[in-house]
Amino acid sequence: MKKKIALAAVSLLLALIAGEITLRLLGYYGVRGADIEKLQLVDDPVVDYRRIPNLSWINNNLRYDINSQGWRDREHAFDKPAGTVRILSVGDSVTNGHGVNVEEIYTKRLERLLNSTAGATEYEVILITQGALNTEQEVHLAEVEGLRYSPDLIVLGYVLNDPAEGASLRRDRQQAHERSWIATLKEEARRSSIIHLGYRSAQRFSWAVRRSRGTSEVAGYATDDYFARLHRNPESWGRVTGAFERLERISEAVGIPVLVVIFPVLYELDSYRWADVHAQVAAAARSHGFHVLDLLDAYRDHDPEDLQVVEGDHVHPNVAGHRLAALAIESYLKERLWAAADS
Q: Does residue 245 share a domain with residue 160?
């Protein structure tokens, strides 16, 4: 009996190893380490971290490639080529393309849309984005990093959690040091292709069953008053208004327009509960001379679950959500912003 048990254990181990190797050869990977491992501290009091340059990794079978300046983007020369219109895209994890490949990010799709009818003009979108940033940090990066590329337009992606406290690598490293051994074990397990594939498959099956029953995964922040509280709180809302004031000074100093794109929460779009928050952000942005595009109208006629990158994530749009955003921005630029400038 002991020999049979040992033989079964060895056979199972060999099968798991073979499965792991096969999945990797077929291009399916687990999660290659925590995001915190791909960051480095920098001497910057507003955003104390950057991505490690020239780094690549796999997350949920999506590849993340970082350029020599530390951004999830292709290489861009600082000197702008003649005949080129540059769009500086700044934002948080939505604009950084959480859960989608870089070519599917809304501003990268916008780049292709504009170039498809551009004639002699070349449009170039430059991403200066990081996950977990707030508006204050996004504007800071636009100033200290983005202006080096001489942009002709700044597009700021606004998400309703943007008034929150900004990200800090020092703080996150301290919290990672204090986490439990169970969390560490789960993170290590995610590195395995076969374990990760099993988990994701079970997750998708569970989602499909719930949708067939007319139920869905709902995050707590979508049902409580979180987003409204952020915008009512003087301290958190002050981060946004202060950032808008700074962005106005930047815009005036270099003579380039700003477009603020407001992303809705992907929950109950047909009876949306944060319309007043959108109006508050839009009014503040317009008071500083910015153009505003509210994507609620572009998203409203769609089932929010069809736009979520994973079920229960009401913040990050999937490929379909990014496509709708790109189309809406292209239309706004051609029909309103640039048309007004030409006239």
A: yes
